[in-house]
Design goal:
alpha+beta, Rossmann fold, 2 domains, eleven-stranded mixed sheet, six-stranded antiparallel sheet, 12 helices, globular
């Protein structure tokens, strides 16, 4: 049966004015044919695989591509335009929905059906002689119903570019939060920078990294599950007698003798002067680490890890005029946790807004004997993303790339610039494309736990600024000034997008 690589689907965007390729598998046919407009293209099937080259095409929309082998696949709404590879970590991955505090009006007025994104979800096959599959994800567009899931940096770049050149813009979003630069590099390059084999070895093989991730998830879930208590249900509604005052924002820190591993409960009573309305909203700033948050005993939101802002819309029918209570069940995983400063904390019902800063009540819940078990994320493993998010796209044609990464390397900044330079050169050789790249200099950041800039952070920034001198066809834009000190994920991505656009216009055109 014929099966195309997952990136080829309805609404896809292919690179204009260059030869492009369509590939996949067919375990029954000897020849596979592709039909686009009035042209026919063919490919032999070798070892069950095929690769069909399509002639260069000018920008276009609404085309149909038909591929025939042992079965037939029809792809509709095919476009030709300019396609960009988006790589790096969470500040490139961060979705538009996380930027609405500062860009709500811009997003609300955006309707760009010809800006489209395909999300590369790594399938973590580390088998040396196999190419990992691409995830079966659909192309999504920048229309009101779907725009929230797009890369914010990518969208705000693409919006300006589309407004300028008025052709389809495709984004291949491969970025992964927490990824190291070593994860994006081919194995043969890593030996130039030290011995990474010991770290890679346990995961080399088809399912070894997948199995490791499953074990990690089970272990963390078990650690968290052991914190559950018969008292939890009662504590949602009632403030324990041993609760003490706690100031929000504020942190429980090991260095101050207040750190804990486990559950801490927080309570805040607040008063509504008006009758509540249907659509209400709780903004609970930024919490470390995972929370379940209740209002008047009803769960209004939960987040499983520390970084996303807690923005919880909820049905205002659970509110009442007069006294109400917020309860937060917070899991602290590594001893330090709490409510991060310089973030909003409020509840809104209609036009009434109640600030939540100030005195809360706090009580310890069930405490663990040790911190949450440490495991690597797949995207931290050297060469993992190269194998699963670069190699599978070998024959996709791009106009250029955008790169925003470095936070995960701040503790080991040595030779970052050299790694980046060799990584980009290796990509260009592997893709057999020029692949010009715009690199982002990281935003400034202060860790809310230590109160300091992470070791090596400024050294990474300094090396990033040098990238355009070290790497041909590379420009650097800065996000250094786009953050508040305690914000790892700056929301001012529209301003970053404007800078990416200005650099991209010079570099890509």
């Amino acid at each position: 049966m014929l099966k195309l690589a997952a990136v080829f689907g309805n609404g896809m965007i292919l690179q204009r004015q260059k030869e492009v390729f369509v590939w996949g598998k067919d375990d029954q046919a000897k020849i596979v044919e592709a039909y686009l407009e009035d042209k026919k293209y063919t490919s032999e099937v070798k070892d069950g695989k095929f690769l069909i080259g399509l002639a260069p095409h000018e920008a276009a929309t609404g085309l149909t591509l038909t591929v025939k082998g042992s079965s037939e696949v029809v792809i509709s709404d095919v476009c030709f335009g300019d396609v960009f590879y988006l790589a790096g970590q969470s500040n490139m991955e961060l979705p538009v929905s996380r930027t609405l505090d500062v860009s709500n009006e811009e997003v609300a007025n955006s309707n760009y059906p010809l800006i489209r994104q395909y999300r590369v979800t790594p399938q973590f096959n580390m088998e040396e002689n196999e190419i990992a599959d691409l995830a079966d994800n659909a192309w999504t567009d920048a229309t009101p119903e779907k725009i929230g899931e797009m890369s914010a940096a990518g969208f705000y770049f693409a919006r300006r570019l589309y407004d300028d050149i008025k052709i389809p813009i495709g984004l291949i979003l491969a970025a992964q939060g927490g990824s190291t630069i070593e994860s994006w590099m081919p194995r043969e390059l890593l030996s130039d920078f030290g011995d990474y084999e010991e770290k890679m070895a346990p995961f080399m093989g088809k399912d070894k990294l997948k199995d490791y991730i499953k074990d990690r998830d089970r272990s963390i879930a078990g650690w968290r599950g052991a914190l559950s208590s018969d008292e939890d249900e009662k504590r949602i509604d009632e403030i324990p007698e041993d609760a003490r005052d706690f100031t929000v924002p504020g942190m429980l820190l090991k260095k101050n003798g207040e750190g804990v591993n486990g559950i801490v409960w927080f309570y805040k009573d607040f008063t509504l002067e008006k009758e509540p309305v249907g659509d209400s909203f709780l903004y609970l700033g930024d919490l470390i680490d995972a929370d379940q948050t209740f209002i008047n005993g009803t769960l209004v939101g939960k987040t499983e890890y520390r970084y996303p802002p807690r923005k919880y819309p909820f049905d205002g029918s659970i509110l009442r005029k007069g006294k109400n209570r917020i309860t937060v069940r917070l899991i602290i995983e590594t001893g330090d946790g709490g409510f991060v400063a310089e973030h909003p904390y409020y509840v809104r019902s209609g036009d009434e807004v109640v600030e939540l800063f100030g005195t809360w009540k706090m009580a310890a819940g069930k405490i663990a004997d040790a911190e949450v078990p440490h495991f690597y994320m797949g995207q931290e493993i050297p060469t993992a993303l190269y194998k699963t998010s670069v190699r599978p796209l070998k024959d996709y044609t791009f106009r250029g790339a955008l790169w925003y990464q470095g936070e995960a390397n701040a503790e080991e900044p040595e030779r970052y610039a050299e790694k980046f330079s060799k990584m980009i050169r290796s990509w260009r050789k592997y893709f057999d494309q020029d692949l010009p790249v715009v690199c982002v200099e990281m935003a400034d950041y202060t860790d809310p736990v230590t109160g300091e800039t992470p070791a090596g952070w400024t050294r990474i920034q300094e090396q990033q600024k040098q990238a355009e001198k070290d790497v041909p066809d590379c420009l650097v834009v800065s996000a250094k000034d786009l953050s508040t000190p305690l914000e790892l994920h700056p929301q001012r991505k529209s301003e970053l997008g404007a800078r990416l656009y200005e650099a991209g216009k010079k570099l890509f055109y």
